[in-house]
UniProtKB/TrEMBL annotation:
Protein family per UniProt: Belongs to the ROK (NagC/XylR) family.
SUPFAM superfamilies the record matches: Actin-like ATPase domain (SSF53067), Winged helix' DNA-binding domain (SSF46785)
Record InterPro entries: ATPase_NBD, ROK, WH-like_DNA-bd_sf, WH_DNA-bd_sf
Protein name: ROK family transcriptional regulator
Length: 346
């Protein structure tokens, strides 16, 4: 980790902080801290907050330093099965603005080029912001290293998403699976900051889960795992040919009166996942959950009745609510900045 990243990380997690407090937290010398703060401030990543200087202190006031959330921003695109969401967030992960459009149909290249044009139009509304990069989050199979997307429900196979969007917007593009991106958002800005481990469960048109352990988002070989075909019983036929797969069951539209039963199914599935990985906290997200708060008690009751481990009060709903897709899509860009801010300091 560079000195700049260490200083920025301390300010992000604990700020506002005096330079002396930053030096103590990072084990860097005061001259080094002062140089890094000056460079970060010039890049508009941090700023002095003189109004918070302690009044009446002896000697030169210790002016705190905090994240500068007024200039730099990250843009994100979440491509869902039916809806695509654009978002822009500040350096604290707070949503500044968003827009939803129907997900384009047709070839992947045409759809991605269309979305690039929509991103350019969307960002014209935020000319006062300096956009550091574009994040893309979606379901399906995501090759992060190559920026490729395979999404059967969209008919995309190894679509060069990163290349097309970067060429069409002029921005560096970070590509990720949408559920890992949501877990990453919780890690940086939500419940994940408070717990050693966290299980994130998402349910909308796509169902997925992701795991954070010791402040790190766990990824399998090339991508996170899949729970879409977790067998949960029932007679709903899945496109894979089997019956009773989790994703098909919780998205069954043939019986709109069965919302409570679908909530119970999700609760049982979350309990099974909890028992397997035994996290400190479970966070639920996705409109199948946030748009049906009247059925949350049913989900939690099924969870408590199914889990074999002690303690049933560890389940919460994401604080991002219906904005979770927009915030998650932007998070990869912010994570890259916090990991290495030096490209913005050049």
């Amino acid at each position: 980790m560079s000195n700049a990243a260490a200083v920025l990380g301390a300010i992000r997690r604990e700020g506002p902080l005096s330079r002396a407090a930053i030096a103590e937290l990072t084990s860097l010398s005061m001259p080094t801290v002062s140089r890094q703060v000056a460079a970060l401030a010039e890049a508009r990543l941090v700023r002095d907050v003189p109004d918070l200087a302690r009044a009446g202190a002896v000697g030169r006031p210790r002016v705190p330093v905090d994240i500068d959330d007024t200039v730099l921003a990250a843009c994100g695109v979440h491509i869902g099965v039916r809806t695509t969401t654009f978002g822009i967030v500040d350096l604290r992960g707070r949503l500044v603005g968003s827009e939803k459009i129907p997900t384009p149909r047709g070839s992947a290249e045409d759809g991605l080029a269309f979305l690039a044009a929509k991103v350019r139009a969307f960002l014209r509304r935020w000319r006062e912001r300096r956009v550091a990069g574009l994040g893309l989050a979606t379901g399906g199979q995501v090759d992060i290293a190559r920026g490729l997307i395979t999404h059967d429900r969209l008919g995309w196979h190894r679509a060069p998403a990163q290349a097309v969007l970067s060429r069409g917007t002029g921005l560096p593009v970070h590509v990720d699976g949408h559920v890992p991106a949501m877990a990453h958002a919780e890690l940086l800005f939500g419940e994940g900051k408070q717990y050693p481990s966290l299980l994130y469960f998402y349910a909308r048109q796509v169902v997925g889960a992701a795991l954070v352990v010791n402040g790190v988002l766990h990824r399998g070989p090339g991508q996170a795992g899949s729970v879409a075909h977790l067998p949960v019983g029932g007679d709903v036929r899945c496109p894979c040919g089997r019956t009773g797969c989790l994703e098909a069951t919780v998205n069954d539209q043939t019986d709109r009166g069965a919302l409570a039963e679908r909530a119970a199914t999700m609760g049982r599935a979350v309990a099974i996942l909890r028992d397997v990985v035994n996290p400190d906290q479970v966070v639920l997200g996705g409109q199948n959950i946030t748009d049906a708060p009247e059925h949350l008690a049913t989900l939690l009751h099924a969870f408590a009745a199914t889990t074999a481990l002690p303690g049933t009060d560890l389940v919460t709903v994401t604080r991002f609510g219906p904005d979770v897709q927009a915030v998650a899509a932007c998070t990869g860009v912010l994570a890259d900045i916090f990991a290495d801010p030096t490209p913005l300091m050049a």
